[in-house]
Amino acid sequence: MSSKLIGALVILLLVWGGYRMFVYYKEVEEQRWHEKEQTSGKEVDPTRLPGMPYELDASYNAAKSQGHAAIKKWLTLYGTQIQDPRKAWIELDYCVLVSRDNPQEARAVFASVKGRLKESSPVYPRLKQLEKSFD
Questions:
Q1: Is a pLDDT exceeding 90 seen at residue 39?
Q2: pTM, whole model, 2 decimals?
Q3: Which of the 8 DSSP states describes residue 56?
Q4: Which residues make Cβ contacts (< 8 Å) with residue 134, sequence separation at least 6?
Q5: Which DSSP category does 81 fall into?
Q6: Which of 25, 58, 79, 88 has its CA 20 to 30 A from that of 9?
């Protein structure tokens, strides 16, 4: 009778160990999937990012078409009305545009964005992409 009890206990432990291994495997796979999704740079439509009043879209598009000096002036005028993540996206655009003419300013703006942006932000993958260029 005791050998049957021991056999049942061994089988029960094997089933439980298999279940725990399965749960661990699922957790690792989910973690890999999240890391891959985060670093994949999934397409983000900057015009759909929250943080900028729709009234400013036309003036921003006009400034963007005129180059980095106009964007800087636009950010000076309207920067207080814009919030992240949209503000971060616009400032990263500005960094890319100004990096040829004024790399120090580009690095300073990039550092500012990097300091306030969280990993959960939809702009974070773009920040990570540009990090090698501005750090």
A1: no
A2: 0.67
A3: G
A4: 95, 99, 106, 107, 110, 111
A5: G
A6: 25
Residue 105 Cα distances to 44, 98, 99, 112, angstroms: 25, 8, 8, 11
**Distance separating alpha carbons of residues 25 and 95, to the nearest angstrom:** 41
Residue 132 tokens read as 């090698």
Omega before residue 46 within 30° of 0, cis:
no
Return the pLDDT at 1. 66
Mean pLDDT of 88-98: 91
| Through-space distance between the first and last CA atoms of the chain, rounded to whole angstroms | 70
**Do residues 130 and 110 lie in contact, with contact meaning Cβ atoms separated by under 8 Å?**
yes
Whether 129 has a pLDDT exceeding 90, the answer reads no
41 Rama class: left (phi>0) / alpha (psi -120 to 50) / beta:
left
